[in-house]
Design brief:
Blueprint (H helix, E strand, L loop, with lengths): L1 E3 L18 H21 L10 E3 L1 H5 L1 H7 L5 E3 L7 H9 L4 E3 L22 E5 L1 E2 L10 H4 L4 E2 L2 H13 L4 E5 L7 E2 L28 E2 H9 L6 E5 L8 H9 L6 E3 L7 H7 L5 H14 L4 E8 L6 H14 L3 E6 L7 H5 L6 H24 L5 E9 L6 E5 L5 E5 L20 E9 L3 E10 L9
Parallel strand pairs: 1-2, 2-3, 3-4, 5-8, 8-11, 12-13, 13-14, 17-19
Antiparallel strand pairs: 6-7, 9-10, 15-16, 15-18, 16-17, 18-19
Helix pairs in contact: 11-13
The structure holds iron/sulfur cluster.
Iron/sulfur cluster binds next to helix 5.
Length: about 450
């Protein structure tokens, strides 16, 4: 049995889940699960055949020796770039030995491995477009566990998106650690884009690469596959938002007007210590530029509070950034130091846990206050909503997401425009519907179902 590890960056998180999503918690879950599986393995009788326990992903790469020593019941360890080696690892495990491959690769993108959609009810899907990261933010373990940045070829991504479209998937989120620095140099038959792709006022610690197909080219091609399929992307870095990406988002009806721009801190001092490659001023200029190009855009962000040597003044700067921007969604974390990172070697994790906790609570409070105002502005508007299913709180209600990725809840009633035919036609998962918004909170919108709709012929909001 192989327990797939949870990745820290690949979750779709609601604003209602503003709990610090700490890696320790995820890893503790795995340690607990390993204990359970170890007990199952011990108790297994011969007629059931052997049980093999494997750990896949970042935790396998990060804690390889510790896992092998601490959990003798583990048979297989496979790092994030070693999945192709699983058949060999399994055959080694069959001989009764522990098998491990946690080597990182410079070129593995799993481009030719088509994922299989296991949930037939799902209306949305993630498509991995690149792996790894070259940025080396001082707090981050990703460059060490996922390796250098490499992009999956465009043709392979398009193939997967077409397959998902034929299966009825209505929303695809392009996924990667740093999606908008995507660069496919294998597709040289396509025209290359050599213009600088860095946002104004941003810098990188590595030399920008030239030639090949950039994120804007990929976004253009992916959004042309199916006009009834919404396209989102996460997680981008603020440094890679040239105007041409913003133009395309504005012009293309099925690219959601929703952008995640992880700020991490509102203090220049902390941003420098984090090595983020921008100042608060450059970040705010980018926000303004995005809003000028894409009126009504929804913005979300990530923040880390209590980073090494963060003062009260730094913290106040972060609170004021949250107020200045007014995000629709934010993922807020208390800093937790990781071994191997630059911060671990060079900086001191000196903000006491109770101070981190208090600062996090203050961030959450300010975020919610602002999000409430942002959502309140949608009351009275008509939103185009992709229906996801029955609301968790009531079987009499449906829920879905609007273009800005805010949850919208509405009564599951027959659709008015079809009632004259005598049919009791109702909205179903995968349908686009128009919903008149009647109330809001910091986390969701509520409204009245108006009609079924098409993505290509409906404005996202009116
Ligand atoms: Fe980590 Fe920074 Fe890369 Fe994001 S951009 S994955 S935070 S190193």
């Amino acid at each position: 049995m192989i327990q797939k590890l949870p990745g820290p960056y690949y979750r779709r998180v609601d604003t209602s889940e503003l709990i610090p999503l700490q890696r320790e918690k995820a890893e503790q879950t795995i340690w607990n699960r390993l204990k359970q599986l170890g007990n199952m393995k011990r108790k297994r009788c011969k007629s059931q055949g052997p049980l093999r326990i494997g750990i896949l992903g970042c935790m396998a790469e990060r804690l390889k020796e510790e896992i092998l020593q601490r959990e003798k019941m583990v048979d297989i360890l496979a790092g994030p770039d070693a999945y192709r080696d699983l058949p060999r690892l399994l055959s080694v495990a069959e001989t009764g030995q522990q098998a491990a491959n946690v080597l990182l690769s410079l070129d593995e993108t799993y481009a030719d491995v088509m994922p299989v959609q296991t949930s037939s009810n799902s209306v949305s899907s993630f498509v991995s477009i690149m792996r790894g990261c070259n940025n080396m933010c001082t707090y981050c373990i990703v460059p060490f566990t996922r390796g250098r940045e490499r992009s999956r070829p465009v043709h392979s991504i398009l193939e997967e998106v077409k397959m998902l479209s034929s299966q009825g998937i209505k929303e695809v989120t392009l996924l990667g650690q740093n999606v908008n620095s995507y660069l496919d140099t294998s597709s040289l038959q396509f025209p290359t884009t050599n213009a600088s792709h860095l946002s104004r006022g941003f810098s990188t610690i590595y030399k920008p690469r030239e030639g090949g197909l950039r994120f804007v080219d990929l976004l253009d091609q992916v959004s042309s596959v199916d006009p009834e399929m919404r396209i989102r992307f996460t997680s981008p870095h603020p440094k890679d938002f040239p105007d041409e990406v913003l133009h395309l988002i504005r012009e293309r009806h099925n690219i959601c007007k929703q952008i995640h721009i992880p700020a991490q801190s509102g203090s220049d001092r902390v941003l420098e210590a984090m090595r983020r490659g921008y100042t608060r001023g450059a970040y705010l200029d980018l926000v303004q530029n995005i809003r000028e190009h894409i009126p009504g855009v929804s913005l979300s962000s990530d923040f880390i509070t209590g980073f090494c040597q963060e003062t009260e003044e730094d913290h106040q700067q972060t609170l004021s950034l949250l107020r200045d921007v007014s995000y629709n969604a934010a993922f807020l974390f208390a800093y937790s130091m990781r071994k191997k990172t630059r911060a671990f070697h060079r900086l001191k994790d000196d903000v006491p846990p109770e101070v981190k906790k208090r600062r996090l609570e203050e961030l959450i409070a300010v975020f919610r206050e602002e999000a409430e105002k942002v959502n309140q502005r949608d009351v009275g508007s008509t939103q185009l909503v992709l229906v996801e299913g029955v609301s968790k709180r009531s079987s009499l209600e449906l829920c879905g997401r609007n273009d800005g990725n805010t949850k919208v809840i509405f009564p599951d009633v027959p659709i008015a425009s079809n009632s004259s035919l005598g049919d009791d036609i109702r909205a179903r998962p995968g349908d686009y519907v128009l919903v008149k918004i009647t109330s809001s909170s910091s986390q969701s919108l509520r409204g009245r179902l108006l009609d079924l709709a098409k993505l290509q012929s409906s404005p996202a909001i009116s």
